[in-house]
Amino acid sequence: MDDNRHQESDAPSGLIHAFRQLRPKSVQVPRSVDDAVLTAARRALNRPAHRDSFRWWAVQDWPNWARIPGLAAAGLLVALLTFLLAPTRFAREDVNRDGLVNILDAFQLARELRSGAPLSSRFDFNGDGVVNKADADAVAAEAVRLDRSGRL
Amino acid sequence: MKWLRVSILVLSLQVVSAGPQAGNTAVRFETVDVFVDTAGKPLAAYQLEFLARSGDVKIAGIEGGADPAFATPPYYDPKAMQQDRVILAAFTTDDATALPTGRTRVATIHLQTTGTDSPNFQIRLQAAADAAGETITAEATFQERNTR
Fold first, then answer.
1. B76 near A CB under 8 A
2. Phi-psi region of B64 (alpha: psi -120 to 50; beta: other; left: phi over 0)
3. Cβ–Cβ below 8 Å for A151 and B47
4. Cβ A103–B90 below 8 Å, yes or no?
5. Is A108 at the interface with chain B, CB within 8 A?
6. Which residues in chain B are contacts of A143 at CB distance < 8 A?
7. Residues A58-116: tens digit of each pLDDT
8. Contact predicate B90/B46, CB 8 Å
9. DSSP secondary structure, B85-129, as one string
10. A86–chain B nearest CA distance, Å
11. What number of other Cβ atoms are within 10 A of residue A126's Cβ?
């Protein structure tokens, strides 16, 4: 304290006077205004946060720690839905639609031919314009093709 | 005289080294019967893979099986001839009552083997079905005939 006073006495008197002029004048605020401000502040601070204000779809509203894993999970979800909802593609000779081309496809076509049921032209595998046993033979030939399946 | 000894030595070494190779070129023909065992269920369709894991083996011919339902030669890739691997498959649309059950010889494979090493064959059933086209559990086996 003494040091401050000593430093103040060392300063030029003009400067000291100028600083003293800078001191704000005290403003008298009525007690009722103070009370009103305090009451309003307390009411605002005690109000629970609105959950409605959080927009889950807006990434900027997410907390920082949730952004990267959240976006990664969203990407995985989109990829999974794309995979599941995409139409499954089967080989042309996969008559029974089990994902494999084997003798069971030729067998199914042969059984349907034997039953006499009308068959779609998509079973015309040899392209001769008719669906008959030759098409079942074509499917069987495809099933036993060596370069189709890997070795044991 | 010294040259004569060296020549005899060199010729002897050549004979010793060439001897086993000459034996390895011996060609034999083997016959392998292929069976499918359905454990009592009627067999209407099958597909299997047969191959030689070791040895100089070439497939020379393929016959049908013993049961009338599979008497005609099965489907196979013609490229399998002169190779060591083949996929065999066959089906029949005969009534279930006419189908074989149990252990059935479905095909016979004729093989040409070269050398003295015994070939190591392997077989794997890829599909089997009953008369309704339903997949059935079965086992594929093979048996070498004693032919030379």
1. yes
2. beta
3. no
4. yes
5. yes
6. 47, 75, 87, 89
7. 777 777 888 888 889 989 999 998 888 876 788 899 999 999 999 999 999 999 999 99
8. yes
9. EEEEEEE--S-GGGS-EEEEEEEEEEEEEESSSPPEEEEEEEEEE
10. 28
11. 15
pLDDT at B116: 82
Contact B100, B67 (CB under 8 A): yes
Q: What is the pLDDT of residues B64-74, one digit of tens each?
A: 999 999 999 99
Which tokens in the block code for residue B23?
């034996």
Q: Check CB contact of A134 with chain B, cutoff 8 Å.
A: no
**C-alpha radius of gyration, chain B, whole number:** 22
ipTM over 0.90: no
User: Average pLDDT of A39-62?
Assistant: 76
Q: Does residue B86 contact residue A152 with C-beta atoms inside 8 Å? A: no
Chain B contact for A41 (CB, 8 A cutoff): no
Collapsed DSSP state (helix, strand, coil) of residue B50: strand
Burial class (CB in 10 A: 0-12, 13-18, 19+), B106: buried
Q: Where are the alpha helices (DSSP H) in chain A?
A: 2-10, 13-22, 31-46, 64-85, 103-115, 133-143
Neighbouring residues of A45: CB distance < 8 A, sequence distance ≥ 6: none
Dihedral over Cα of A61, A63, A68, A69: its sign: negative
Q: How far is B2 from chain A (nearest CA, A)?
A: 57
